[in-house]
Amino acid sequence: MKTLRNLGVSVVAATAMFGATSVMAEDCETITLGAAISLTGKYATNGVHAKNGYEYAFQKIKENGGVKIAGKCYNFSTIYYDDESKGDRGATLAERLINQDKVQYMLGPYSSGLTKAIAPVTEQYKIPMVEAEGASRSLFNKGYKYLFAVLSTSEQYLASAVTLAAEMAEKEGKDAKSVKVAIAVENDPFSLDIRAGVKEDAEKYGMKVILDEKLPRDLSDMSAILTKVKLLKPDVLVVSGHSKGAATAVRQIGEQRINVPMIAVTHCEAADVVGNFGKSANDILCSTQWAETLSYEDELFGTAAEYEQGFKEAFPEYTDKTVPYQVAQASAAVYVFKDAFERAGSLDKEKVRDAIAATDLTTFYGQIRFSENGNNIAKPMVLRQIQDGKYNVVAPSDFASHKLNWPRKPQ
Question: Which of 147, 151, 321, 388 sits at 20 to 30 Å (Cα–Cα) from 335?
Fold first, then answer.
C-alpha cells in the first residue's frame, strides 16, 4: 500500500514550510482524518492539488490554535492512501482506513467516480465524509446521510456558457434558437452530468446540439472529434475531461486552429493551460467553483485574495500560476470539519455528522449550506475567460470583473 502520513519528518517539514506555530497549537491533541486520494494515475494532477489544499488548511488551523472542543484543542492528522485513480482501489482503501486504521471521519477523494465508489463504504460504516472534488448530481440522489460536498454540482459548471451564447446571439439580432452547440465529454459521472446540464439549458433556448461525442478513454487525442467540429461549424463547443482532457483539448484546438466563436472547457487552471499552451488558450471560457477576485472572506483564511497569497507562500510551486479551485475547495472541506467539531462540542461521530448537516458557514470559498441530500446549495459557479494569459471572471454578471471577449478567434 502506498501511504503518506502527517507524522514524523512530514510534520517537521510542514512546520518549516509554514513557520513556527503557537505553543497552544503544539500542545493540542489529535483528530485523525482519512483520505484515499489520486496521487498517481490519470487524476493525479488534481489529486495532488486537493491534497495540498487539505494540508494548507490543516496548518492554518494549527497556527490559529487548533480545533476547540469542550475546553480542549485538537489538530488534524491525516492518513493518506493512493487510490491510483481507480474506483475499486478507492473503495478497498476506504475499508482499510475504517477497519484497520480506525478512522472515524473522512475527507473525499478526487473526482465524482472515485467519490461514487467510496461513498457506499462510508455510508455503511456511518462515517461522516466531507468531500470537495465529487460534483456529480448523481451522488446526491442516493439518500446518503453521511456524505457532504462543499462544491456546486456538475450540471451547473457550463450552464452559464449556454446563457452567454444566447445573449451574444441576441446582441447580433439573431434568435437564441439559431445557436448550434457541440459537446465532447469524458464518459464519467462528472462529465456526463455536465453534458446533461448543457443539453437541458440548450433545450430551454431551443438551441440545436449538432455534435454529441465521448472523448477517448485515455483522454490523449480528440483530433477526430475536432475534425467533425470543423465540418459542422458550431457556435459553441463544450469540453469536459478533467485536467488531462483540458490539456488535450486546448493543445489540439490550437494545433488544428479550431474557429468556434465560443469554447468552454472544465479544469483549465488545474491543467495550467496558459502555462503549457500560451496563446492557444486565449479567450477560452473556463468553469470554476472559486476565483481569488471574488468577495468572499472568513476569519481563518481571510479574503479569497489573501487565501491565494497565503497558499502560494506555503506552496511556491504555484507562484507563477492561478491557484486551481480544486485546492481552495479542499481547504474549505477541512474548514467545514473544524466548524462542525466546534459546534458539536464532541468527538462523537453522530453528533459531528448532525453538526455538519446543520452547517451554514461563510468562507473565503463562498457560503456553505447543505441540502438534505448533502450538496452545497448556497454557492454559485462562475465562468472565467482567459484574456491575454489572465483568468478573468466574465459570468454571471453579478460576479464579473471583465467583459467577455467574443467571438473567439484562432490564436
Answer: 321
pLDDT recorded at residue 26: 64
Contact in structure between 120 and 139 (CB atoms under 8 Å): no
Other C-beta atoms lying within 10 Å of the C-beta of residue 23: 7
Question: What does pTM read for this prediction?
Answer: 0.85
Cβ-contact 60, 327 below 8 angstroms: no
**Is the fold of 3-153+292-369 the same as that of 156-288+382-399?**
yes
Task: Tell me how far apart the alpha carbons of residues 53 and 312 are, in angstroms, rounded to a whole number.
Answer: 11
Q: What are the cell numbers at 337?
A: 470539519
- Domains of the chain, residue spans: 3-153+292-369, 156-288+382-399
Q: How far apart are CA 252 and CA 223, in angstroms?
A: 7
pLDDT at 399: 87
Are the C-beta atoms of residues 75 and 61 closer than 8 Å to each other? yes
Closest C-alpha to 286, from 240, 228, 352: 240
pLDDT digits (tens, 9 = 90+) for 54-63: 999 999 999 9
CATH homologous superfamily of domain 3-153+292-369?
Response regulator (3.40.50.2300)
Q: Are 111 and 188 in contact (CB under 8 A)?
A: yes
Of residues 98, 83, 3, 97, the one with CA closest to residue 43: 83
Rounded mean pLDDT, 208-230? 96
Specify the pLDDT at position 396: 85
Find where cell 448523481 sits: 138
Q: What is the pLDDT of residues 305-331, one digit of tens each?
A: 999 999 999 999 999 999 999 999 999
C-alpha angle 331/396/308, rounded to 5°? 30
Give all strands (DSSP E) within 195-354, no chain letters. 208-214, 236-240, 262-265, 285-288, 297-298, 302-303
Superfamily of domain 156-288+382-399: Response regulator (3.40.50.2300)
